[in-house]
Structures are given as C-alpha cells and as structure tokens.
From TrEMBL:
Keyword Transmembrane helix annotated: yes
Keywords attached to this entry: Membrane, Transmembrane, Transmembrane helix
Protein name, entry field: DUF2214 family protein
InterPro entries: DUF2214_membrane
Pfam (any one): DUF2214
Transmembrane segments: 6-25, 46-64, 76-102, 123-143
Keyword Transmembrane helix: yes
Amino acid sequence: MGDTVLAATHFVLAFLLVATLAVELTLIRPGMSADDVRTVGRVDMAYGLLFGALVLVGFGRVYFGPAGASYYFGNGWFWTKLAALGVAAALSLPPTLTLLLWRKAAKRDGTVPDAARIRGVRNWMHAEAAVLLAVPVLAVLMARG
C-alpha cells in the first residue's frame, strides 16, 4: 500500500507541476500589471515547491518501492531522467531570479517588465517545458529496464 500512495502522489505532483508551469506561461505576457507580477511570483514559488516535492517523493519510490534502489541506480534511463530533471531545474533558475527582481521593482514603484524581458523569460520557460516533456518518456523507458 505504501508504494501505491507514493506512486499516486508522484503522478499527481507531476501533473500539478506541468499545470503550474502552464499557468505561469499564461500569466507572463506583455502588458502585465504590478499585481500580475506579484501573482506570477506566487505561482513560481508553488512551482518550486512542487518540483522539490516531486523529487523527494520520487526518491521515496526509489528507496521504499518494491523494485529497490539497486534497480534504479543500475538503470541508465533513471540517470537520464534525473539529468533531464536537473536540466529543467537549471532552466527554471533564470526565470525565477528574474521574477524576484520584477516583484521587487513592482513592489517598490509599480515598475513592470517590458515586452523584450517578458519574451526572454518565456523563452527560458519554453525550453524548460520541452525538457519536461521528455521526462515521462524517460520514465517509461526506465520502467521497462
């Protein structure tokens, strides 16, 4: 039963993560108001928390799942999946740091980002989304050994 709970939680977190990224991409657009900047900052924080929870629950499955850690650690697809998650995490850093600066400016004097800066952040996020699309494929390959 424990593995069922871990597996279900892992899947729900993955779906929530993708949904949160989609919400961020929807909110980050030209013409953002200071309130929009604050909102997207909160959504980005939720995204980071979901990402961390997803990784923790995933490692819970590695250590407490029926396959055992040796199965995962000896599986090249597992390491490829972890590498993809690492790349996605790295790609999420520039947008997160930029959003923090935008929030600070919006709070200070109501400054909002211009279209070029918004486009730049969206480009990073699109790259991140593309990498995340590979993760379920890698998970299937991993499960099949």
